[in-house]
Amino acid sequence: MRLLRSTDLALRLLMRLAVAGESTPTTREVAADMDVPYTHAAKVVAELQHLGLVDARRGRGGGLTLTEKGRTASVGALVRTFEGDGEVVECEGATPCPLNSGCRLRGALRRAQEAFYAALDPVTVADMVAEPTGPLLLGISRRPGAV
Fold this sequence. Notes:
Layout: H1 5-18, H2 27-33, H3 38-50, E1 54-57, E2 63-66, H4 68-71, H5 75-83, H6 105-120, H7 125-128, H8 133-138
Antiparallel strand pairs: 1-2
Helix pairs in contact: 1-3, 1-5, 2-3, 5-6
């Protein structure tokens, strides 16, 4: 299973904000720090804000902050939200699989996918920035003097 770029960015962005301290980086700064297009970062920030995980303030003195809900959010729930309910393989697309009526692979892959999510369910954003990750995240900022 491979995560969507937006899922990966959402997790990394939340981790980055979890170690920001008093700093309130902008979406543009976070996009530059993570070497992703600003438009992609802005879409992810908008979704995280909609979910109540990030506060985004515009203007002078604005920026991004992680909410308490964001700090305690389950990684499994986040991945489910960003990945959607899709299955690992597409069995009923434009050209349905000829094995569809009697295939055991689909069920096995669904169970594996649920086991993947279940393994991530107890992990929180705060857990992901514990030593040694937190200090590494602090070092990725490209802004002089930034946290």
